[in-house]
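Folded chain entry —
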Amino acid sequence: MSFCQLSGILFIGLMLAGCVPAVAVHSSTHDELDKVKSGRLALVLLQIKTMIDGKLVSPIDPGDSNKSLRLYLASLSDPRGPQRIQAASPSEVAAAEGWRQMLLPPGTYFMLALPPGVEQNPPAVAFHLPSARFGRLTEYKFEPGRGGFWSPELMAFELAGAAPQGFREIPGFWFQVPEGKPVVYIGTLSTVCTGGRGLFGSLIDSCSDHAITLDQNAARNVGATALSWSQGVDTEPLVLYGKARDGARLRDPSAISIAVADSPALDTSHIGARIAPWGVIHGTGRAIGIYNLLAIASKAATESTARQQADQRATEVQGCIQRISVSLQGMDYAAQFASALAETARTRETATDLNEKRAVGTPGQEGDVPQRLAISIPILRLRESVEPQYLGLELGLHVSLEAGESRRVAYDSLLLYAEGFPAQNPLTQTSRLYERLVPERAQPRHISEWCSSNGEALLRDEIGAGLKYLAAQLVRDLE
């Protein structure tokens, strides 16, 4: 194994220097260009600028991956969840200026950018298990692990229990790739960091929140170089996830047009292996090597056993789940959600505006554009609780606010009503990094209660309550 391969397992208290090469330059292939011309793909441009102690980090020099941003991307209509990406640049000149490109089909996307400081000990960025969120550790301490443990699954430190003082959640972004737009510019992402001192050299002390600016002239030049036949660049700036575009608000929810996808089927989710410390130790020699091999084998065996037990528990309750799910046939989710939305707005006395100017900032086009809410329910299941033999409802609602015929998205989010997040790898679950847990929690109940003669009514009541809480969160988001 190379040092870079070993670093996730035998992690020591210094930065992982030299493990990541310079940003790759990728010229689009004929097949990719054909897909862009036909509208199946778009060239999405993002510029990244990182400043550490007043010096701009060169994106093309081979060096310390700990000083680079780490990007995660997910389609908000794809249940596979976020994946870490290594975006290339369209040219050497563009690479030197921090430009990255992604070839994506039309749709809405979630992006999470982690600032520098993930791959060091003590970490400046870590993952908090209970909230399923990455966060900045703004109060620097030379304390190995900062109370957490290294996870090779995430290639980051993970914190269990209460978040430490100074932990600041790193918000994600969403953006849209419109139909018929070959080149889309989503903004320039800037981060400013300060350095600290570690045992073996410089570390990252802390970084600022990401700033989003627009340099449309530069984006047009990069787009013209990448696609010489393209007619300009469409600008679709990154929007903080959980927020709407500027100017998009709610008014008169009773008049909203709500479209809902096909009714979902009830499922169960039983927790397999929970994330835990890796168990290997750093060092050389035959004894340490054998110990680490045994630790890795033990972890793999434990995870395999946990998966088998989870599958067995799911099989045991399958008959009950099929029986009570019959009560959901014919359930009008759209009507219930619309009613809850209107009631919440009245209760909060929210002046809501569901009309967006036809073209903000464009003279002569002041008419209002009708909008609609498109909702789907990608998550509907009874999930295993931390208490044995207990299951709690997990209801996820994907909500997208669209503008009339243009289908321009003003808001897009996946809201979740559940007991909480299980202590698992968020990249192997459906979409933990962009599921937004509402403040109200689902109440776990014993399997015997769900499977009783009152189980069907209980399930419908729980779903109804969940829809109310999800509607309330939407109103708060759009106030």
About this structure: The radius of gyration is 24 Å. Residues 286-316 form the longest helix (31 residues). The chain is about 25% helix and 30% strand. Residues 50 and 191 are 5 Å apart (CA to CA).
